[in-house]
Write a structure and sequence with these properties.
single chain; 25 strands; Rossmann fold
Length: 762
């Protein structure tokens, strides 16, 4: 309802005016505070002395205060435009009066009266807005369960400090504000959704931090946005226990990280760790390894060759990737590590001169049994302590025996011989021999342990991995009986060729990390307590397992969509495998997000028609919200050039409607380059996205289907949905489904020759 037509307009306008005055006052105060802090930091840096611990402490504190002040200023600046978006009236049980709470992206307190003016959306009581209906209800907070009655739930549209619309509601699903939000245009970056968080999304955002959480979400269900809001919520809830640096997002690529980069700052959160599995792995491995571009492989699989030999090779390559990323491969590595263990200790006794200090069997027993809970290399440090302690004890006893023998021998000579030069010479020789022997023992003992340890051959994790693959067939300790000889030979030969170019593939990273973890141990302590893995269907259970092994005592939120698993040859095909193999079958919650908010009913229904061709479905079909739009437009053209000309004409029409982003999605990067060439010289100049970009810029783009995952656009043109391009293979179904679920408003599909059988029912 237009604000000035609502009965409570004057009341809400007065409240807004009061709040904005307070925001402006707070803004002025914080600008002054920050200026003072900036001055103190500048002075501290200018006059800093490394010898003064107090100066260092003061500088660290002021730098921390400076960061907090910057975040507060940013939040207050945003609050000038839109201080809050909703309010609720709640009366606690057995109380006469009601309390009114205005909910915004930040909390604001009137420092003069200590009145809470704005309630942070992450506060427990804000749950009343997101999940409760009018009437008797309750919410959970640190003090326990608070019961009462929800008397009012109101949404407020405020733009540039002006109250434009007021809606009194009962539930937040399918309300007018949500409809308006979904009808907006896509921008360069993903945006926050605190105003329109729905009940099922809210449950995930506020779920228990310490219970591993797996979220299967349909395309457009808001998985990524929910993940980022969950981080913001957890940082707020556990601010006394953890810092933002204790939270980490692992995304599929740097390009995607850039796309989501503005959400957390918009929510007032900074310094959260953001990385890709590739970057994380290289940091842990600690070697200067280069990783083959993963898009080369998927482009090869997408460009299915008609050459029989090449097709057979591609199938073997898929099986190789699948094997390397499997838990079976992890088990084979465990077998290999057992063989390394058995041969690790030199098969000889540890001696001091000719005296046995430790027998080989004793040392090997310590290594294999006493310290079996430690990584292999770490066990040596413990064994060295045993060797050194016993050596020192034995050395003292040996020297003492030599001294006693020397004294006894001298006494015998003195008793049996008169004092002559010959007797004196014999005594001197005895003493000299004893001293020489003692010196030898002292000298040898100083390096005896080090000399023994030097005989242990220690490779770095990459070298162990190469040795493991090189001896894959000949090592009798490996359980490889269920793997075909053809696949093993192909994997070994191909891997060695890749290694010779000083590269590894992404499938090799988890095995190398796992070897480092088991053999060398992880020295670097990563201060992360909660990990969010987005697009998790493209991560293998083996990858997630090594993350869990390395970052101990951390909790997980894992989000993905199996229907979009275009890297299923090296990813996850069933969430239960992660639950059982990564989290050992322990309590791990699996939640479903079936509601799709991105696109219209017409587009989502068309995409679901394609998705139903998947043979193995272990996930629910996405359900679109009640937002209608034009039907999906399907057009046949004679050539790819004609298609490009038609797209250019269509873009003219959409430009007038002020659509901010349009994407031409081709199946492959090669097709993208051809399409890109046809747009040269035309009015619209799309950007070609290849996957090597580190920064995402929207507008008009051309990109391959496998790079469109996770992105959204106002309008999408699928360049060629022909039978030749999209057959009935699982990869084709998923790529087409991903492409069709990118648009917010309009979807056009063009094709040459015969239309894909996946699209025949549209």
């Amino acid at each position: 309802m237009v604000a000035d037509k609502h009965p409570a307009y004057q009341e809400e306008k007065d409240r807004l005016d009061y709040t904005l005055k307070l925001v402006n006052k707070s803004l002025e105060t914080y600008i002054m505070r920050k200026d003072n802090i900036d001055e103190e930091v500048a002075k501290g840096k200018k006059h800093f002395s490394s010898e003064s611990s107090q100066q260092y402490i003061d500088l660290m504190i002021n730098t921390m205060l400076q960061d907090r002040a910057e975040i507060k200023l940013r939040n207050l600046s945003q609050a000038k435009q839109k201080p809050y978006f909703a309010c609720v009236d709640f009366r606690e049980k057995e109380r006469v009066t009601k309390d009114k709470y205005y909910i915004g992206k930040m909390a604001l307190i009137d420092e003069a009266t200590m009145e809470l003016v704005i309630t942070d959306w992450r506060a427990p009581i804000a749950n009343l807005y997101y999940e409760s209906r009018l009437g008797d209800t309750e919410y959970s907070c640190p003090e326990g369960i608070i019961k009462g009655e929800l008397l009012l739930k109101r949404q407020l549209i405020i733009n540039k400090g002006k109250l434009e619309e007021i809606y009194d509601i009962d539930i937040t699903t399918n309300d007018e504000i949500l409809q308006a939000s979904l009808g907006a245009n896509a921008d360069n970056r993903l945006k926050e959704i605190v105003t329109t968080i729905q009940s099922e999304q809210n449950k995930i955002i506020r779920a228990d931090m310490w219970t591993p959480l797996i979220v299967q979400g349909a395309a457009g269900s808001g998985k990524t946005t929910i993940a980022l809001h969950r981080i913001a919520y957890l940082i707020y809830t556990y601010e006394k226990s953890f810092k933002p640096e204790n939270f980490m997002i692992i995304a599929p690529n740097r390009f995607f990280l850039n796309y989501i980069s503005e959400v957390l700052p918009e929510l007032g959160v900074e310094r959260v760790l953001q990385t890709t599995f590739e970057d994380f792995a290289l940091q842990i491995i600690g070697l200067k390894l280069k990783v083959v571009d993963g898009y080369e492989k998927i482009n090869r699989f997408v460009n299915e060759s008609k050459d029989l030999d090449q097709s057979a090779r591609n199938k073997l390559m898929k099986k190789e990737s699948q094997l390397k990323c499997s838990m079976k491969f992890k088990e084979i590595i465990d077998d290999y590590i057992i063989t390394v263990e058995k041969e690790f200790i030199p098969q000889e006794d540890f001696k001091l001169n000719s005296i046995i200090i430790y027998k080989y069997d004793e040392l090997n027993n310590l290594f294999l049994n006493e310290y079996s809970n430690l990584p292999i290399v770490k066990r040596i440090d413990e064994i060295k302590k045993h060797m050194t302690n016993r050596l020192n004890a034995r050395k003292e006893a040996i020297i003492e025996n030599l001294e006693e023998s020397c004294v006894t021998e001298i006494k015998q000579i003195k008793a049996s011989m008169e004092e002559t030069e010959e007797r004196q010479s014999l005594i001197i020789n005895i003493i000299d021999n004893k001293n020489e022997l003692v010196n030898k023992i002292e000298t040898h003992s100083k390096k005896a342990v080090a000399d023994y340890i030097k005989k242990i051959s220690k490779l770095n994790p990459y070298e162990y991995y190469k040795d493991f693959l090189k001896n894959f067939i000949t090592n009798p300790g490996l359980s490889i009986e269920n793997i075909s000889g053809e696949l093993i030979e192909f994997m070994v030969q191909r891997s060695m060729r890749v290694f010779k170019t000083d590269y590894v593939e992404i499938e090799d990273l988890a095995p190398i990390i796992y070897m480092k973890y088991k053999i060398h141990g992880i020295d670097e302590k990563i201060p992360v307590r909660h990990i969010v893995i987005d697009e998790a269907q493209d991560f293998s259970p083996f990858q997630i397992l090594v993350i869990r092994k390395i970052i101990k005592d951390s909790s997980f939120t894992i989000l993905g969509d199996l229907a979009q698993g275009i890297h299923s040859y090296r990813g996850t095909r069933d969430w239960m495998e992660i639950k059982d193999k990564v989290f050992d079958g322990k309590h791990c919650e699996l939640l479903m997000l079936e509601q799709s908010y991105r696109t219209t009913i017409e587009i989502m229904n068309a995409a679901n028609t394609v998705l139903r061709y998947l043979k193995h479905k272990n996930f629910p079909i996405g359900r679109p919200v009640i937002r209608h739009g034009p039907s999906v437009c399907v057009r046949q053209k004679k050539s790819l050039k004609d298609i490009c000309m038609q797209i250019a004409n269509d873009m003219d029409e959409f430009s007038y409607k002020k659509y901010k982003s349009m994407a031409i999605i081709c199946k492959t990067i090669d097709e993208c380059r051809i399409v890109y060439s046809y747009f040269k010289g035309l009015k619209h100049k799309p950007k070609l996205i290849t996957g090597s970009e580190k920064e995402y810029n929207s507008g008009i783009v051309i990109l391959p289907s496998y790079l469109s995952k996770g992105l959204e656009f106002d309008v999408v043109f699928i360049a060629n949905g022909s039978k030749e391009n999209y057959g009935m293979e699982e990869m084709d179904v998923k790529l087409l489904y991903v492409s069709m679920t990118r648009p917010l408003h309009r979807l056009y599909i063009y094709y040459l020759g015969e239309i894909s059988p996946l699209l025949e029912k549209l």
